[in-house]
Amino acid sequence: MKKFLVYSGLLSVFSLFLSIGVSAQGTTVLTMKDGSTVEGYIRSQFYSTISHIEMSEEPTGKTKKYDLDDIKKITMYSIDGDSVLYVRRYRYRLFKSHNKPHKGYYKQPVLFRLDYASPKGVELLTEIRRSVATSGMRTAAYKELWTYVKLQGENAARPLCAVIVGSDKPEEANFRIMARRAFADYPSLVIRINGGEFSAKNPLRLIKAYEELIY
Fold it and tell me: Domains of the chain: which residue ranges?
């Protein structure tokens, strides 16, 4: 049976702020690469490219820093007992550049929310990016939400769609462009993407259609 983590939609991620308020969350469990676990409350910012996590045993207690390279997975629990799993994965470059002529994958993994995973390695992932915008003397941090798919047998995840800064809706046009690139090796699926059968609001439906082709 496929392992299924309920996908509640892109917009649900906006409830997770860049700096998590301890009063609005339950505990977080870090599973370390050596097999040990640490449970406590996150006291630092949380987005895809962080290098460490600061946690405390109590909501307002003394913090301790944990290097992300030492962590295998992160499980967050809400005050209602629901859980969300975060894992580190590689991601493919979206565009070519003069310095990086090939769209290979980044050598340094980033932190993804794992929304769906099958036993054969297909995954639906959400990346919470941090961006900074400056206007005059004001500087503000924003979130960008990117959805990725990790195809069977690949080392890195491919981008599917994004929510741009200042918006609360995924861009359907960009979704179709990115989805066609992600599934370019599956012409029948590309035809269905072009026909508008799939939506950025429910990328899991597209992942399921892909699985029907490969299984």
Answer: 14-81
> Which fold, 14-81?
SH3 type barrels. (2.30.30)
DSSP assignment string, the chain: ---------GGGGGGS-SB--GGG---EEEEETTS-EEEEEE-SB--TT-SEEEEESSTTS-EEEEEGGGEEEEEEE-TTS-EEEEEEEEEB-SS--SS--S--B-SS-EEEEEEEE-TTS-EEEEEEEEEEEEETTEEEEEEEEEEEEE-TT-SEEEEEEEEPTT-SS--HHHHHHHHHHHTTT-HHHHHHHHTT---TT-HHHHHHHHHHHH-
Cα separation, 107 vs 88, whole angstroms: 12
Taking only the tens place, the pLDDT of each residue in 162-214 is 876 666 666 788 899 999 999 999 999 999 999 999 999 899 999 999 999 99
More confident residue, 144 or 38: 38
Beta carbons of 113 and 49 less than 8 angstroms apart: no
CB of 163 within 8 A of CB of 170?
yes
Give CA separation, 38 vs 30, 53, 107, 110, 134, in Å: 5, 12, 27, 20, 37
**Contact at 8 Å (CB) between 114 and 5?**
yes
Q: What CA–CA distance (Å, rounded) separates 82 from 47?
A: 20
On whether the CB atoms of residues 53 and 65 are closer than 8 A, the answer is yes
